[in-house]
From TrEMBL:
<feature type="short sequence motif" description="Histidine triad motif">
    <location>
        <begin position="96"/>
        <end position="100"/>
    </location>
</feature>
<protein>
    <submittedName>
        <fullName>Histidine triad nucleotide-binding protein</fullName>
    </submittedName>
</protein>
<feature type="domain" description="HIT">
    <location>
        <begin position="4"/>
        <end position="112"/>
    </location>
</feature>
<dbReference type="InterPro" id="IPR001310">
    <property type="entry name" value="Histidine_triad_HIT"/>
</dbReference>
<dbReference type="Pfam" id="PF01230">
    <property type="entry name" value="HIT"/>
</dbReference>
<dbReference type="InterPro" id="IPR036265">
    <property type="entry name" value="HIT-like_sf"/>
</dbReference>
<dbReference type="InterPro" id="IPR011146">
    <property type="entry name" value="HIT-like"/>
</dbReference>
Amino acid sequence: MDCLFCKIISGEVPAEVVREGERTLAFRDINPQAPVHVLVVPKDHHPNFAALSADPEVLAELAAEAGRVAEDEGVAESGYRVIFNTGAGAGQTVFHVHAHVLGGRGLNWPPG
C-alpha cells in the first residue's frame, strides 16, 4: 500500500508526533492552516470518514484524542475545530481518514 499516513505510522516517513495512543497517532500537519494544526489518524487504514463509521470504537478514540490534542496544545478553552474531509471534492488529499485539529486563531464560519 502506498499510503503516506501508513508510512508515518510505521516510522518509514518522519513526522512530528504530538500524541500516540494504542490505536491512534497525532502529528503536526506539514502545511499548517492555523497556529495549531494537528492530524489525528487511526493506526489501521480506513480510506475516509465514511469507511471509519463501520468501526465506532476507533471513531470514538479519534474524537477523544482530538480533544486531548486541543488540551495539550492549549486551545481547548479558547476554541478549536475538528474537521474530517471526505473525498477529493471536500479537499481530502491523503486517503487515510484523519481528523484535523485546528486552533490558536479565529476560525471563520462558514469555512473556505
